[in-house]
Specification:
Elements (H helix, E strand, L loop, with lengths): L15 H5 L9 E2 L8 E5 L5 E9 L2 E4 L12 E4 L15 E10 L13 E5 L29 E6 L15 E8 L1 H7 L9 E5 L13 E4 L2 E8 L9 E5 L4 H13 L14 E4 L8 E4 L13 E10 L13 E5 L22 H5 L17 E4 L1
Antiparallel strand pairs: 1-9, 2-3, 2-5, 3-4, 4-7, 5-6, 6-7, 8-9, 8-11, 9-10, 10-13, 11-12, 12-13, 14-17, 15-16, 15-18, 16-17
């Protein structure tokens, strides 16, 4: 498994192959430019750290590796349109971010040796095609031969580590061109008895795909034939192994059809119903949030809600010196329900070129207008 935190190396009780898959990164690649990559999706945790890759199949479906659905990974968000942006700039008009609703793994997926390492992610909100977002093209039928016989080279892409030792992460999506090799010969390296028709293998001189690239697409002639699965000692004699997409077309089609028909019972991704608080990025040392106190004295705590802060997320371009991009979100450990004393604030639904002109006659201060500012909260040190 190409993934995630060095702490997971502690899972040495699993087989050598599984542990070896913890090591890696995109090696010897470059920033994706000429290659078609607008279907690439970054799968991130609650702090927007990219954990896996994926490819956008349609508005609410992403194709990825089954091991990316492991509870250790804690996937929370899918970010599309970010393949043309630095990954830190996920707050952008060209980027669409949505919460992951469910991760549906292949019914015969085996975590210990990563058999049938393929999954579909269902998104909470649809992602439409734009100038920076497109849907990936999959094979239409299963091939009856080893892919390397007609596809000699393939492109693999991801946001994985650039170097295993420095653990440096790329700012932009990386692409690497690799040689496609015989699956039978490839599996001899791993002493694996798995069906060679279920995988695709690649190799390259000083090039490979590993840690953080799991679930990303392997593209040949504009079509996705592989999903990054596992490897060992990246960019060495060991080939990279990918779930072979054309072998899983029935799983992909049936899963989506069953979901639409309502005949599938799935376990949704573990999420916490949360409330986010909008504030300034300079408000750093905050411990608790008090809601429902905006219409009463500060020393009165009747009918108020007190919550601890789970974490804060400042704008990636925030500067303490000039206070540029002075905005952040605070995520609470428990939700705060609306009530007579607590309301959710309404935000703009679009960006205005001249907010002063827009706001001149319409904007009012809630206190001066004697409004009930029930959406205001107190962030206490």
């Amino acid at each position: 498994m190409y993934s995630f935190h060095s702490e997971f190396i502690l899972l040495l009780l699993l087989c050598n192959q599984y542990c070896a898959a913890l090591k890696g990164r995109i090696v010897g690649g470059k920033v994706c430019t000429n290659e078609k990559h607008e279907f690439a999706v970054a799968l991130a945790d609650k702090t927007f750290i990219v954990k896996c890759g994926g490819s956008l199949l349609e508005a609410r479906w992403v194709l990825t590796a089954a091991h990316c659905c492991n509870t250790m990974v804690h996937l929370r968000y899918a970010m599309a349109g970010i393949s043309t942006n630095p990954v830190e700039e996920y707050i952008s008009n060209s980027v669409t971010v949505t919460t992951i609703e469910a991760c549906i793994t292949h019914p015969d997926f085996q975590q210990d040796d990563l058999l049938n390492d393929i999954a579909l992610i269902r998104l909470e909100r649809p992602i439409k095609e734009t100038a920076t977002i497109s849907y990936v093209q999959l094979p239409t039928t299963k091939l009856n031969d080893d892919i390397h016989k007609w596809c000699t080279q393939a492109i693999v892409m991801g946001w994985g580590w650039l170097d295993y030792h420095t653990r440096k992460r790329p700012s932009r999506l990386q692409c690497v061109t690799l040689d496609v090799v015989s699956s039978k010969d490839c599996l001899h390296y791993y002493h694996s008895r798995r069906n060679p028709d279920t995988v695709v293998c690649t190799s390259g001189d000083g090039k490979d795909a590993c840690r953080g690239d799991s679930g990303g697409p392997m593209i040949c002639n504009g079509i996705q034939y592989g999903v990054v699965s596992f490897g060992m000692k990246c960019a060495t004699k060991y080939p990279g192994v990918y779930a072979r997409v054309d072998n899983y077309l029935n799983f992909i089609d049936n899963t989506r059809a069953d979901y639409r028909a309502g005949s599938m019972t799935i376990q949704t991704v573990s999420t916490i119903v949360v409330i986010c608080v909008l504030t300034a990025a300079q408000c750093r040392k905050v411990d608790i949030v008090v809601a429902g106190i905006s219409i009463q004295a500060l020393d009165s705590l009747k009918n108020v809600h007190v919550r601890n802060i789970n974490y804060t997320l400042s704008h990636p371009l925030y500067e303490t010196d000039g206070m540029n991009y002075d905005i952040q979100l605070i995520r609470l450990d428990e939700p705060i329900p609306e009530s007579d004393n607590v309301k959710y604030v309404q935000l703009p639904t679009e960006r205005y070129e001249d907010i002063n002109e827009r706001c001149e006659s319409q904007c009012v201060h809630p206190i001066k207008a004697k409004m009930k500012p029930a959406y205001q909260i107190l962030a206490a040190l």
